[in-house]
Amino acid sequence: MLRISARDFLFWKKKQLSKGGDQESLAFLLDSVGGISTKDQKFIGINPEGNLYLKKNLDFLESNWDNHLQKSYPIQYICGITFWRDLRLIVTNKVLIPRPETELIIDIVIKIFGKKSQKLFFTELGTGSGAISIALALEYPLWNGIATDIDQDALEIATKNYKNSSNQSNLKFFCGHWWTPLESFQGKLDLAISNPPYIPKIIYERLPKEVKNFEPKIALLGGDDGLKHIREIIQKAPLFLKEKGWLILENHFDQGEQVKKLLIENKFTSIEIVNDLSGIGRFTIGRYK
Questions:
Q1: Do 164 and 90 form a contact (C-beta atoms < 8 A)?
Q2: Which residues of 58-85 are buried (b: 16+ CB within 10 A; e: fewer)?
Q3: Over the Cα atoms of the chain, what is R_g?
Q4: How many angstroms separate the CA atoms of 197 and 199, rounded?
Q5: Do 145 and 136 touch, CB atoms closer than 8 A?
């Protein structure tokens, strides 16, 4: 551990913020890489006496901060972690950084099935970091789940995140394209969830560089109209869902009505477009027959 006076640390911190960026991101870097908790950072601001102990020296932390500012490198990738609901997740540029708005998927599931539920079987298609599946496996320990992803590197990260978050064994990880790893489970699923790539090509080209230059293209680009993967997931879902099984999809802010139409065409009922906290139709849900 490296010792530094609280006053010197505060002077250094002020210098870093003068370069740009936001205080929350710097606090996140200092906590996860520097070893100074957010609570301690606040206390020092009130009482700048005594010394601090760092896991990494200030030059190393400054280099990481400059990388974030100058190259728009996401702070979560620099730190190697992110927080989602009550989970602490490993993230690298092999997986999409899970967004706060996606947390509402868990609330949608709870609204459908209740907080306590009988034993059910669910899948998540395109799990990435594993955030959704892990949160569900923890919320419903009686359920069994399978999380799939086409990228083996992503599955290794998701598996580590599950092991770090739980001592349960009700979630398994399979590699493959959407429904392909689930061929032996046709007609057996009570619930399928996916936050697939849904960004239309023209919008993908205009994404902020901190997203486009660093987050995996395969997890973002949804073809020309953004619906390529959603269309495939919906069309094949009836093969895998039980009768009255649910499908929950995250989609682009303006795709809700199109996704609803696709669900109707594939014999789904109880279809609903669910808004996120900003009032945007972020999720489309339906029940098979």
A1: yes
A2: beebeebbeebbeeebbbbbbbebbebb
A3: 21
A4: 6
A5: yes
Amino acid letter at 217? K
Distance CA 129, CA 84 (A): 10
Residue with tokens 């139409």: 261
**pLDDT in the model for residue 260:** 98
Q: Which amino acid, 125?
A: L
pTM: 0.94
For the chain, the domains span 2-67, 82-288
Fold topology of 82-288: Rossmann fold (3.40.50)
DSSP letter string, 189-232: EEEEEE----B-HHHHTTS-HHHHTTS-GGGTB--SSS-HHHHH
Residue 252's H or E segment, with its range, is none
| pLDDT tens sequence across 41-91 | 888 877 788 888 899 999 999 999 999 999 999 999 999 999 999 999 999
Report the C-alpha gap between 194 and 176 in whole angstroms: 14
118 confidence band (pLDDT: 50, 70, 90): confident
